[in-house]
Queue: 4 jobs
Job 1
Amino acid sequence: MRLNSTTLAAPYVPAKRTLVLFAIAVFALAFTPGTYADGQKSGPNGGQVKDAGKHHLELVVKENALTVYVSNAKNVKVATKGASGSATVLAGKVISNVKLEPSGENTLAGSGTFQPVPDMKVVVSVTLPGHAPIQARFTPLQTP
């Protein structure tokens, strides 16, 4: 029986292509930068940033005050005039509701009766004029 080199190479070529494509996919996943939603990313104001629909929300907590900065997907400030919002804060075992009102070019702010603790959780809901409500969940005092 005579060996035919094309018979031996044919099964190997698709396997080699599959291996190369798999290696490229693994490399791409390993070196692709994460988005805001994937982790604890700090924003330009020092707060935690989360994706909320087509917007980014950055939450800054200082004592018993909350400030939410709103930007679009390209990190351009979004005007908050006429916007409304609320935040539900779970600090320890205490739940506090905070009304957020426009307080600057792209900010909403409010204060409540909560005491910041490292494991606090905050759910922020914002309604911008002419847009559907958006929501994001934060763990603002946890380190990345």
Job 2
Amino acid sequence: MNRNNFFGHAALAVALVMLAAFVGQMSRTQWSHDNKHETVERRIVFVPDGPHEVDEPEDEAEDDGEVLVRFREGTTERAVRAITERLNDRLLDRFDYVDGAAYIAAVADEDGLDAERVAAEYRLLPEVEYAEPNVEINLDPPGELFGGEAEIAAAAAEEAELASAYARDEARRGDDGDDGPPVIMAKGPRPNDPMFNEQWSLLNTGQNGGTAGADIRATLAWAKTTGSRKVVVAVLDTGVDYKHPDLAGNMWQRPASLAPYADEHLGTIDDRFGFDSADGDGDPFDDNGHGTHCSGIVGAVGGNNEGIVGVNWQVEIMPLKFMDSGGRGSIKAAIEAIDYVIGRKRAGVNVRVISASWGGTFSSRALEDAIRRAGDEGIIFIAAAGNSRTNNDRLQHYPSGYQLPNVLAVAALQRRDALASFSNYGPKTVHLAAPGAEILSTWPGNQYEEHSGTSMATPEVAGVAALVLASHPDMTVAQLRERLLSSVDQLPALAGKVSSGGRLNAARAVRAE
């Protein structure tokens, strides 16, 4: 950065430190490479696939010296370019749809400095509101559903309490039919999809050791609506296998009347099937699997005598790929994908929901700004609470932890209505829970797999949000968020764990009961 005023001895010392750091980085890179392949090979069923954790910025910048900078209102592009040139930096991108005269940019250092040091120097400038490293987002290796005897005993105690609570509630309800016993809850249309009976989150009859009725009341909701192809849900993830026979009929495609997406830095992109911000193109095909799994939960085609059914039998799923085949992305790529959604919303696409099954502990103000912008456009942001078994009130988790009016944070339940042992929680920062353990869904290559995680609970909520919008298309984000939270089933296992104290209830959310 043209910073040549160091004394000779200081320069020598810095050079030695950088050499040592380079050797250390080589070691860290090899470890990351080895474990990346281990993660891919261990994408197995019946266990949590883990959160997409964000670690400390000094180890996880996408490229050395790559930072995100918000310049203060009134700072012109000419001034921004003059600043970056003076510091010998390269202006990578300018984020769109920033209100007012503010300017948010991605900047790359050209002198080999680490991202945190570059960000710190930008923060000293009077023209800068904030600067932060462009942090990587990575898939974690899968974890165990139950860690040991103590956890199993705790889960058994929770289930015993739940059984007693159900018995007390049933006796208190009598015969009024309000959220009654399983025979009442099982009413409603049944799809002909052959694997539907394995989808306990939609209809729990006690299969595979579950608790009858411990589901989201999907069949009752379907008596009122099975969704609408006028509602678009954006899945912000590893992309989607949009050729999968159980997804193809519900995939969003750019209408012929809509011009291809244009970006100042990327140029014109043929976004027929969506957007890939990881590669900067219009092909968001999933080469990892995670995004395809989440998409099937939202909207695998219902009633097509194929595989499974989604929460929505019909909907439009917009694929947003910001992570690569190894499950690695960045804050910058996530923001670019969110800005793409905002652009398409402004162009007339009725995208109302973003489903985000990833997160970590690094708080990005630039990402928060992007999610806020989406909320201003009428888009709700459903986010996974994380799979680290921690209290998010104490160790915060993002993006689920952003205190924004369009964010909903989701914990995961297992098939007996207890909080899944891997799930994060937080009576202030996590809002509701949904089924997220042993969830069967679509997988690339015309396959189906079971996976567990708050990653799976999140699209359950996103799917119900789309169901509500199918019947109430003019509902605001505030109204939709309140509807989802006020319609939950209160569960003893969630008291003091999530702010609503309850499990997602699709039937009550769409006013089918």
Job 3
Amino acid sequence: MSGVGTIQVSSRSVEPSAYRRFTPRHARLATATMFPNSARLIALCLLLLAGSAGVWLYQHNSVEQQLVAERQKTEQLKLIVTRLSAERRVADVVVSEQGIAPGTGTLRTTLLFVEYDHNGEALPARKFTIDGKMAHIDAMVVKFAGKFVEDNDPLRGHSIALFTRLYGDKQSPDAAQHIDEPGTVPAVYRGADHRISEFEMDLWKNFWKLADDPAYRQKSGVRVAQGEGVWRPFEPGFVYTLTLENNGGLNITSEPVKGIYKELLHEHADMR
């Protein structure tokens, strides 16, 4: 009896001790194995998240940059189209008198011709009297290559015109009156940048060479050099505006007289 009891006591005293010795060591091994794996998993997840965030930011920034580039390109194209299609006022014409000349039976029209300089300022009005009501206005026109117009080149950013003569439909062109006198510096260049004056005056001096010599035109950046004219009936009570397209030639439009031209006509009437 006592032997069996000793064995049982010994057995109970041995098992908890063995269990205590084994369990902490197993737990430590399991914990040591589990924590490094968890840390690696967490690190991998963080790395994947960081990578995904980086890719998203890169793609987002790339899309934004593409949108900005496209917007800039669109605005640039709009500006080019505007430059190519724009036109500027180069002269106004109004009728100050119109009627049958005494003793001739001929209808005569007196025109006030107002040119605008390179700064858009009106020059003093000049008076021309023609036979008839249909007036022909001739000019030499230089049109530059489109790339200069697109880039708004300071010298070749728009077509230029030099008015040469004016005559009525009841007159011969040989009887035409000169608008810009040959051999003189046109009034439109007064006060203009000397570079513009020198460059354009050289073109006018060599105008027909420009018209006939392709190599010279290309060297000067000129697309076309030619004579152009507009003509139409002129009536009292209207202002006729001559415009020059940046990449084209002369146009003429009309509208009822108003503003400064009413004053100009009153001044002219008082001077008669």
Job 4
Amino acid sequence: MSSISSRSPLFAAGRKPYANLADVVPGSLEVLVAVVGGLGLIHDSPAGPATVAWLNLHSLFGFLLWLSVVAHFHRRLNLLPRMRSSDMRAFARHLSHRVYLLLYGLMLLNLSLSASHAASRAVPIVPTHYFQPYLACGIFALIAIHVLTALSLRFVIRGGVGNGRLTYFESASPKRQG
């Protein structure tokens, strides 16, 4: 027996009371990306522990950020009703804003770690190169957002959710003669 009454908004929407795994993964990946990025910056800072040389959080951060972008696209493309092209562009802008916000947060953490290290040693604040790999991963994620948006605007899933067959739509521009 289901404990959802017929007056419940979950019943009216046809949704289950528990979340689908595809709904939970993108949000939890964002939190994990932020935590790994912060721990990586703390690890790479001059005040961080230099004893663990094998730990490479740059690549883990980049992979998780890319996986988060792909999970968001997968979740949004499999939702019904299908998105229009203007909605897809708005979704891509929203996802890009989230990546920028994450990078700004990591930049602020990097600056605060450098300032606290400089204050404890009574030396001037010097810019560090620890943030550059995280910035490169963020730029890679932004490129992935643009590529996935272009591919999703060019290809449309036909048949139903999870069918996997793609249909290529020609653009309205005339073909070149030559």
